[in-house]
């Protein structure tokens, strides 16, 4: 087996399992958020600049209704990442259907 064949096989595996890896990473981070939610030593870990504060003010209607964690930063990250995960899943399904129909 040549190096190019091995590299191609690895890239194919990553493309086909990319969404599952993304989902697994999301779940692992949610577990970490759950574990570290009540830790008070990280109070200033999310110091935001002006752009970050602006983004928080614009996105607050989205995550105000979503309270899983005590820290609002964890809730915001969960909502944004969840939306990205859902959009990624839909795009992969659409591309998979197009690929399936063209073959």
Give the structure's gist in a few sentences.
By secondary structure, this protein is mainly alpha-helical. The chain is built from 3 helices and no strands.
Oligomeric form: single chain
Mean pLDDT: 75
Largest sheet: none
Instruction: Tell me the series of helices and strands, N- to C-terminal.
Output: HHH
What is the total number of structural domains?
Answer: 1
Overall 3D form: elongated
Poorly predicted sequence stretches spanning 5 or more consecutive residues:
none
Radius of gyration: 19 Å
Number of strands: 0
Strand content: under 5%
Backbone structural class: mainly alpha
Distance between the termini: 28 Å
Structure annotation, total helices? 3
Helix residue percentage: over 70%
């Amino acid at each position: 087996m040549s190096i190019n064949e091995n590299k191609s096989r690895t890239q194919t595996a990553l493309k086909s399992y990319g969404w599952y890896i993304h989902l697994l990473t999301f779940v692992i981070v949610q577990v970490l958020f759950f574990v570290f939610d009540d830790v008070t030593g990280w109070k200033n870990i999310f110091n935001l600049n002006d752009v970050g504060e602006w983004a928080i003010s614009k996105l607050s209607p989205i995550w105000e209704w979503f309270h899983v964690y005590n820290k609002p930063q964890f809730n915001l990250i969960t909502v944004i990442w969840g939306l990205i995960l859902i959009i990624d899943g839909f795009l992969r399904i659409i591309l998979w259907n197009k690929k399936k129909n063209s073959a």
